[in-house]
Every structure is written in structure tokens, then in C-alpha cells.
Design goal:
By secondary structure, this protein is of the alpha+beta class. It folds into three domains: 106 residues; 100 residues, Butyryl-CoA Dehydrogenase, subunit A, domain 2 (Beta Barrel), CATH 2.40.110.10; 151 residues, Butyryl-CoA Dehydrogenase, subunit A, domain 3 (Up-down Bundle). Helix content is 51%, strand content 16%. It has twelve helices and twelve strands. The strands form three sheets. Strands 1, 4, 5, 6, 7, 8, 9 and 10 form an eight-stranded mixed sheet that branches. Strands 2-3 form a two-stranded antiparallel sheet. A hairpin with a 2-residue loop joins strand 4 and strand 5. The longest helix is centred in the middle third of the chain and has 37 residues. The protein is globular, with a radius of gyration of 21 Å.
Amino acid sequence: MDYRIDDEAAALRAALLEFLRERMPDPGTEPGDAARRGAWRELVGSEWLEHFASGTEDGADPAARVAALHVAEAFGAAPVTGPVDTVAGYLLPLALATGWTAGLARLRDGSLVTTLVPGIDAPGPDAVPRRRARRLAAVRGGDGVRVSGVLSQVPCAAGADALIVAVQCDGRPAVALVELDRAGVSVGEPSGVDLRRPVADVTLDAVAVDVASVHAPSDLLGHEDACAAGHSLFLDAEAVGGSTEVIARTVAYCTDRVQFGRPIGSFQAVRHRLADVTAKVEGARSLAYRVAWDLATAAPGAPADVVASRLWCSGAYLAAGEAAVQCHGGAGFTWEQGVHLFYRAALSGRGGADLAAARVALAAHLGALTDPAPAAPDAERATEPVAAMGGAR
């Protein structure tokens, strides 16, 4: 790996940060629906979401893939409401990779579109971690397709215009663009600790979908797996950006806050705590960059490294959030300081079904490395649509 953060990458990140801080509403102010929708349309129109997708295209230079993480870091440092990670990190790359023109058009017209990103599947005999979507049933009828099923904890589903659903149609895996104002759609109450992306359950009861809204390329499963891995890296970079921001805010607070005639940052217990979490975050940053490079070069073990990066980066973000709350003292819990916004984001990215699945996948990978007998590739599993675990939220 030979990568340096050049002036162009630094300028790109600075420009995005300036845009987000000046134009996007603070999630901590809990903006209303009209403000969120207006901000989302402006964000989509600015084309910032497509910067990450362009760096993850097939054949992209490894340095471009690493540079794309700077965009995600900026979204971590300046959080905004809406399914940023879902659209920039998964849906746009998937639509570009599979040539889904209708899906791209909908993602680019300012509509609020979301989905449930495939989670980690149980590792097969080859011990390679893969991500598989839980597919709903889709049945042809009349002039279109009828989709039925329940999806749990879909990010930003409440108030969304459309949902992209992984379906099984005519015996083949496909994705379908489901309008959420159709008859048969039921969206539950939003919940979750993350103010940026509240989750909600979505129930589809024989919802009519136009045939033109169903996309079934032959290599869909492979692209879903690759794009879900890219989405995992987007979350990693967001965590690194959020951690860096919350540490910077805490250092500034501890420099200004004076107790016993000294800034509290001069006390060993405080400065060592911040130094420790800074070291964790910088390690997470290095790992995420390395994994992005290895994915672009198809290095052996890269899929397992993606899983390891998710564990390290999410753990470092949570440690940074906890340290920030503690070092702010009583003020860390106040709405005005805004530390809670980052701590909530860190909590939402750590835990849930994918945490256990990630540990199982890494254990299988490490076991395969120490086993002298190579396992045969699980070809059947690689092509078979699998009911998988939902993403952690």
C-alpha cells in the first residue's frame, strides 16, 4: 500500500465539511419533516453522495477507493439526518455496478429512498465472510408483481418515499423498488437511539410493484455482497470521522474548563483517557484505509479484514464517545454540548445481530488459516439466495 493524503483529498474533505455544517440542519435540533426533506433534496442535488460510489466502482484505482473514505469521514464529523450511509455506501454503488437505470434515476431525483443493507451470513466451508439479504416473496400477477413480507429496523423508513427490497421472483434473486404510498404498505413508529437514522419496521402485504421497478441481473448476489462490504467501510470511515470530531471537541472543552486553578485537561486522568482513545481511533483509521486498498486489489483475506475493521472502528467510536461524555463531566449529558449526538451514533453502530455474526465469521476465518487442509470453495452457497441476518442498528 502506497497512499498519502494529498492536498486535493484534504481540500475535498474540507469543502464537504463546510457544506454540511452550513447547509444541513443539526440532527440534535430534531428538525421537522419539511426541513429534513429539504435538506435531503439539497444533499442529493449537490452530488456529494456520489463521490463515495465513484471511488468504489470496479476497476477503480486503490488510491481512489481509500480517498472515498474521506467523504464518509466528513459525514461522521458533521452528522446529517437521512439514510446517507445506505444511499452513498450501498444503493448507489449497487445500482451503478448492476446497470440499474431506473434505480439510479430514483436515487438521483431527490426522493428519500432507503433499504435494509444485507448482513453477514454464517460462514460456509471456505470460511469466507459473505453478506446475504433476507429476500421477500414476490409473485407475478396481473400487470406487475406482488411483494409480501416484513422487514425489521429499516433505517429512515418513517417518512421515506420508497424502499428497495431484496426479493425472490420467478426463482431468481432480484431487487424491487417499492413505493411506500401504495396500498398494503405499513410503516411502524420510528425508534432507536440514533437521531440521524431512526429505524422502523415495514410490513408489505401483497404490495403491487410495476415490472419496470424489478431488477434481476444474473450476478446480483455477488454485487450485493461486494457493495455491502463497501457499506461496512463507509460506516467505518464515518466512525473514524465522528470519533475525531468528538475527541477534538472534548480537548477544546478540557482546555477551557478550569478546576482548582488549572485546565482540567492538565490532569493526568483526563489527558491519559483522551490519549488512549486517540490511539484507538488512529489505529481504526489505518485499518480502514488498509482494508479499502486490499478490497480494490482483491487481496486474499480482504473480506475477513472488512469484518475486523467494522469491529475495531465501531469499538473505537464507542470508546471515544464514552470518554467524551465522562471528560465533559455533568455537561456531557446536556443537549447543548452535542456530545450525545456522537455517542448515540456510536451506540447504534455497535451491537445487534451483526456483532455476533462478525465474531463467528472471524473465528471461522482464523480457524481456516491455522488448518493445514484447505477447504473447498462453497460454490453452491455462493450462488444461493439465503435468508440472512438483518443489519445491526
